[in-house]
Structures are given as structure tokens and as C-alpha cells.
Design brief:
The complex is a heterodimer of chains A (229) and B (117). Chain A is of the alpha/beta class and 229 residues long. Chain A is built from 7 helices and 10 strands. The longest helix of chain A is centred in the C-terminal third of the chain and has 14 residues. Chain B contains 5 helices and 2 strands, in the order H-H-H-E-E-H-H. The chains are: A alpha/beta (229), B mainly alpha (117).
Chain lengths: 229, 117
């Protein structure tokens, strides 16, 4: 099942956050969504998650415009700190279980163990890295068709990053698609196989990364510099 | 593993695994991790991991047994073969660079003997 973005536009007053982007997200891939801050990554993600209405064009899931019902199959991890501080890590799981039919408590617990998170700890007392892990665990404990992860590595250390990346890689399968947005290219370079570049609300490129290395002898970071200059 | 991200990652993992076969860390007939496990071990994309096994199969180093997984081929010679092939490969690259610096094969031989002491 393909998530098709067609001529998607979003304007906020005079400013255009997205100025007509077209690309497909297909199962069996992990995508990097790259671009500087303000290039439209979050706007696209919110649109693809059904949280934001396009001004023109839009995002199609199974041939219909994405709507709130599609949240059952399209999982979205916002970059903001949206977890309730008063909940324990375990309660975050229960909260998700009530919302999403595809949420697996067993998988959530396994992910917590894998990332060494204590289920009894209150969200309020978690460090930034632990909070990031908790958000990823609760999102990846769902059996979604598409996972949209907005800056999942923001402000965390190398070890937390490794641990989160492991979970993402373990969750990837031929039936699902994972999109990771980032403004730091190096941190996801080896994990993703396709990259979509945004620049000033426009799509600058959509490419296969191993092909880029084979054909042009360039890394993703090289390409990023080339495209954004 | 630290990758040179301007070189295809599957090739780097292929070489790393071949190095393990050559050095005897992985033995003839041994079961290799599943594609998914390999992806996690090396922190690489699962598609890249699948490609690693495709290439190793094409090179006759491993084989997939349906329903069982991927194994290093059961050949006594495999370690020796891979080891020799990798040695030749390294030697060729080394020679190329030394020749680019203007050394003759004889001079290179001398340097190697000297440094190997």
C-alpha cells in the first residue's frame, strides 16, 4: 500500500510551508526525510498523519485523502513532548492500547526492556533520552502500515540514538514503511535506503541511497550539501 | 562498524563478513544471522542486509536453505579460498598505490621485508 503525496500545498497566511510536493512512500523501505529547519518536513508529516488539511493537492492513502480514520494504520510520532508527565511509562502504554487496536502491550514491554526503560517511572522524571525512547517504544509497539517519525533523535546522546535505531530497524519489514525526518543526516545515513529532500517547501530530490553511493560515489551527507547550497 | 558512507554499504558489510570467514571467526557450514539480525548488528537497512547475502551467494560463499536460513557453504576449502582472494585483492590495491608513488616491485618488496621485521 502506497502513501501518495500529490501536489501537496500548505500555506499559512502569505507564507507557504509546502509549495506542491509529489512523491510516494512504499512499503519495505525506510525513508529519510531531510531538509533544514523550516523546509516543510513537519508540515508534510502532519498532513500525512491526517492532522493538517492541505491548501491544495494532498496525501492519499488507499486512493482516498488521508483522514482521521487512517490513524489506525498510519502511526505518527510528533517531535513535541506530548506525553503526560503524570503518567508512568506503563500507563503511557495503556493509554495507547485504548486508542489503537494495533497496539501490542507485549511488544511495548519488550521494547522497554530492550531500551532499558523502567515501566514504573513517571514520564515527568525521565531524561530527554529516556523520553525519546519511550515515545519510540510506544509508537513502534503498534503494527502500523506507515510510521512517521518526526525528529526522533532530537537532542539525545549517541547511545540513546543507537538504541532507538535498533528498535526502528527491527520494526522494519516488507509490509510497512518508515519515514524518519531529521536535519542531521549522518545519524541515519546507514539505516535508511531512500531519501527525500525538502528545501523551502519544495521537494529537491527523491533517491535510492546505495545507488547514489554506487553511481556518484557520494554519501547522503555529500548529496545534502550539494542540494541545499 | 564505522562505514565510509560514500561507498555502498552492502559492499563494506560483504567485505567484513568475508574477513570473518577468512580469519576463521565464521566457519564453513555455520549459520549466519537472519537478514533482520544482520541489519540490527550492523545498524543497516534491512534491504541492504538482504543484498549482502545475495552478493555472498553469488560469490559462492554462502547459501540459503529454504526455511532454515543462510549458511556459509559447506566446503573445507572455503576459508582458504576467501583468505587468498582477499589477500590478492589487498595486495593489488597496495601495489597500485605504491606504484603511483613511483616505487618498483623490487623496492616495494624491500620495504615490506624491512617493515615486517
Amino acid at each position: 500500500m502506497t502513501l501518495c503525496t500529490k501536489e501537496a500545498e500548505k500555506g499559512y497566511g502569505r507564507k507557504k510551508a509546502l509549495q506542491g510536493v509529489t512523491f510516494d512512500i512504499e512499503p519495505g523501505n525506510i525513508y529519510a526525510l531531510l531538509g533544514p529547519n523550516g523546509s516543510g518536513k513537519t508540515t508534510w508529516m502532519k498532513m500525512a498523519a491526517g492532522l493538517l488539511h492541505p491548501s491544495a493537492g494532498g496525501v492519499l492513502w488507499e486512493n482516498h485523502p488521508v483522514c482521521w480514520k487512517d490513524r489506525a494504520e498510519i502511526a505518527f510520532l510528533p517531535t513535541e513532548d506530548y506525553l503526560y508527565g503524570w503518567m508512568s511509562v506503563n500507563e503511557v502504554g495503556k493509554y495507547y492500547q485504548d486508542f489503537f487496536a494495533d497496539f501490542s502491550m507485549d511488544r511495548y514491554q519488550a521494547l522497554l526492556r530492550q531500551m532499558e526503560l523502567d515501566g514504573n517511572q513517571k514520564v515527568r522524571t525521565l531524561s530527554t533520552g529516556m523520553r525519546a525512547k519511550c515515545k519510540v517504544a510506544v509508537t513502534m509497539a503498534r503494527a502500523a502500515k506507515v510510521y512517521l517519525l518526526d525528529e526522533p533523535f532530537n537532542g539525545i546522546d549517541l547511545l540513546a540514538r543507537d538504541s532507538i535505531l535498533q528498535v526502528i530497524l527491527a520494526s522494519s519489514d516488507p509490509e510497512n514503511a518508515i519515514v524518519i525526518s531529521s536535519h542531521l543526516v549522518e545519524e541515519i545515513e546507514s539505516a535508511v535506503n531512500r531519501a527525500i529532500f525538502f528545501r523551502n517547501g519544495l521537494m529537491a530530490a527523491d533517491l535510492d541511497i546505495e545507488e547514489l553511493r554506487t553511481r556518484e560515489g557520494k554519501s547522503l551527507a555529500d548529496k545534502y550539501r550539494e542540494l541545499m547550497q | 562498524m564505522n562505514f565510509d558512507t560514500s561507498i555502498p554499504i552492502y559492499l563494506q558489510v560483504v567485505n567484513d563478513l568475508k574477513g570473518k570467514v577468512a580469519s576463521g571467526q565464521i566457519l564453513s557450514g555455520e549459520k549466519l544471522p537472519s537478514g533482520r539480525e544482520l541489519a540490527q548488528q550492523y545498524q543497516i537497512n534491512p534491504n541492504t542486509a538482504a543484498r549482502v547475502y545475495q552478493v555472498l551467494e553469488q560469490q559462492g560463499i554462502c547459501e540459503t536453505r529454504r526455511g532454515l536460513g543462510t549458511f556459509v557453504v559447506e566446503q573445507e576449502e572455503i576459508q582458504k579460498t576467501v583468505r587468498e582472494e582477499m589477500a590478492k585483492d589487498l595486495a593489488r590495491k597496495f601495489l597500485e598505490r605504491m606504484k603511483a608513488l613511483g616505487f618498483t616491485v623490487e623496492e616495494i618488496g624491500k620495504i615490506l621485508k624491512e617493515e615486517g621485521k
